[in-house]
Structure formats: C-alpha cells, structure tokens
Amino acid sequence: MAFLTWKRAGYGAAGLLAVLFIASVVVFQNGIFRFFATPRAPFQTVTPPPQPEYAARGAWLLWPDGSRKSPADAFYVHSTTYYRGKAWNAPINDRKSEEVRRKIAAPNEAGPFLGVANVYGPRYREATLYSLFTHKYDGLAARRLAYDDVSRAFRAFLETRDAASPIILVGYGQGGLHVLGLLNEYFQGEFNPLRRHLVAAYVIGASTPGEFLNGLNPPLPVCDAADAVRCLVSYVDYEPRFDEEMERIRDRSLAWNAAGELRSFTSSDLVCVNPLTWRRGGDYAPAANNIGAASATGIAYGAMPPPIARAVGARCANGVLVVDTPKRRILRRGDWFGDKWKSQPFNLFYYDLAENAGLRLKALNERLKVEPVPLAPIGETIDLGASPINKVPN
Q: Are 175 and 146 in contact (CB under 8 A)?
C-alpha cells in the first residue's frame, strides 16, 4: 500500500511538473522565440551575403511575364520572411525564406495589385526578424543593408519602365519601412516627375510617423479620400488581444531622416488610414464595409483567391488599426512562437486594396489628362554685360 501511495505521489509530482513546464512555455514563448532568433555575432563581425545583381531575373521575386500590359507599374517590397538567428541579413537564395516569399508573402501582399499594375518585386538581403525588436546598431545596420538592395533594385526598375506610366509603391512590414526610404530618396522635390506619376504609396504593417511625411520636400500628404493621389496609405492592423504589440508600435517606430539614416520615433502622430473608409482615423467602420478578405496562400501566381466578404470591421485607435477578431480562423493572426510577427497567410483587406488601387489609378490618369506639365524653375542665372552697338559698314 505504501508503495502504491508513493507511486501515485510520483505520478502526481510528474504531472504537476509537466503542467508547470507547459505553463512556463506558454508564458515565456515570445522570449524563447526571440532568444533563438537572435544572431549570435555582432553585425560588423559577419560577412554579409553576396549582393544581388538586379540585371539578372534571378534577383527578382516578381517580374511581369509580358503576357499582358497593365496601365501602371507597381514596385513591391515583401515583408520579413527570414526568421532565424543564423545571420543579420538573409541571402536571397535562402530556401526557407523563398518558400515563405512564394507561397505566403507575394500572393497575399502583391496579389491585390496584379489586376491594375505590372508588379516588380525584388529579392533583397532582408534583415532577420530579430531586428524588429532592436533599435541598436546591429538591427539598424541590417535594415540599412537591406534598404541599399531595395534602392538599387528600384533604380533598375526605373531603367526598365516607361517614364510616363503611373507608379504604385507597395511595402509590407519591413518592406514598408523600405518604401518610406524610397520616398525619402527618390520622390523629393516639387517638380519631381516620379512624384507627379505616383498613384499612391501603400505602407502596410509598418508604422509611419507623421513627422516623416512632413520632413519630405514638399510634405507628402496622407491619403484621406478613396480617390486621393500622390499620397500615402499606411496602417498596422491588430486584433484587440494584441494590445502589447500596439503599445510597442506606438512607443517605438522607425523612419528615415533627410540624411538617409534611420531614426527612432515615439510619435503621437502615427498615420492610420482605415481601408474600410479610406479616411485617416475616424469612427469605427463596420464589417459591412469590408469588400473582401482573402487567403491567397499557395495559389498560382496571378490567380484570384475566393473573397470572404464582411470579414472584419475596423477603427483607428492612437495610430493603430484595431480590427475585429475574424470569425474565420484562417484570417486570424497567429500568436504562437513568433507567428504574430511573421508574414501572414491572409490579407484582411485584399479586395478593398484591389478596388482602391484601381480607383486611385483612374483618378490620377484623369488628372494627368488636364494638368499642365510643370516646368522646373530656371536654376542658375547669368548676368549679361552691356554689348557695344556697332554700325553696319556701308
């Protein structure tokens, strides 16, 4: 009897330890994930992966196949797909990252724009996911290296495209930060032809401080109407249960300064454009406004996923887009071991974005038809001296 009692006590203790272990894993899962995602060597001691050559098609994730010509060009920068702590920057041929890019990121992120634009999307030496959590030198340097690739790809894109075609910029997550870098580097100046042909910049899943837009020359407006053009749409969407993530975004945002350096912001003016109203801020918009969410994961390139209408309502709350918890599980952001920070296998506003891109493109084309082409002001003036008058000889 005593033996059985001890045996039962042993089972009970083992069960209690198992429960405590599982509870500890659940409580500390985010810390565990960040630990294993942390690169072990400082950035400056690691040789970065080989630089992509954007003259080669292998350096591009997306490139128009030539089967049809769309009325606009879209430059798309994918979200973070490199989740390991092996290095600060991923090689563009990393097998696991490529699988995420092809099956998850590109279909759900670039998919909404395929109906209106020739989509160009570079592979780039993206910063590892851990850089999301640090504003120290290593994380900033990794993102700077990634942006340098994106910038070179954008120059190659400009050399390929028709200069008279409208441009759409699209960036998700880390890619959104790099799109802000492109605005800072290539779209400055009142008479800049790139800005004149800009349909809109869509920065999704990356926060945009209003101070960044005001620092551009001239300041870039926020898109505050469904048909506004030459402006920026930005939002970071989370379900209410991710309140800690919302606070992290409000407390620590990144943007580029005039010198091309990353600057950390604690901003009270984060841009939040609600994709259910296409207005900045505003009241709660019900799910009836949601044209269609979609999960395009794994579908063939260019195929349209089935729309899931009225999936979520949404409101802007202190710079973050708070969305209803979707009834469909396939549309819910994961929360196990870093899933909430990874490329999402769905897009809550897939068909809202698709319709809006077409609307803005139409509005820009109408404006370009009647708008006079601006001439850059004369730069340097030359003072001419008095010229002597000579009589014509007889």
A: no
Q: Omega of the bond prior to 218 within 30 degrees of 0, cis? A: yes
What confidence tens digit (pLDDT) does each residue in 277-321 have? Answer: 999 999 999 999 999 999 999 998 889 999 999 999 999 999 999
181 domain residue, yes or no: yes
Reported as type and span, the H/E element at residue 203 is strand 198-204
Q: Is 318 helix (H, G, I), strand (E, B) or coil?
A: coil
Buried b (16+ CB within 10 A) or exposed e, 30-61: beebbeebebeeebeebebbeebebeeeebbb
Q: Count of domains in the chain?
A: 1
Domain of residue 286 covers 32-370
Residue 20 lies in a domain: no
> For residue 383, what is the DSSP state?
P
- Which residues does 185 contact at the CB level (< 8 Å), separation at least 6? 151, 260
| Within a domain: 385 | no
> How many Å from the N-terminal Cα to the C-terminal Cα in the chain?
142
What is the dihedral sign for C-alpha 261, 266, 268, 272?
Answer: positive
Does 127 map to a domain? yes
Record the pTM: 0.89
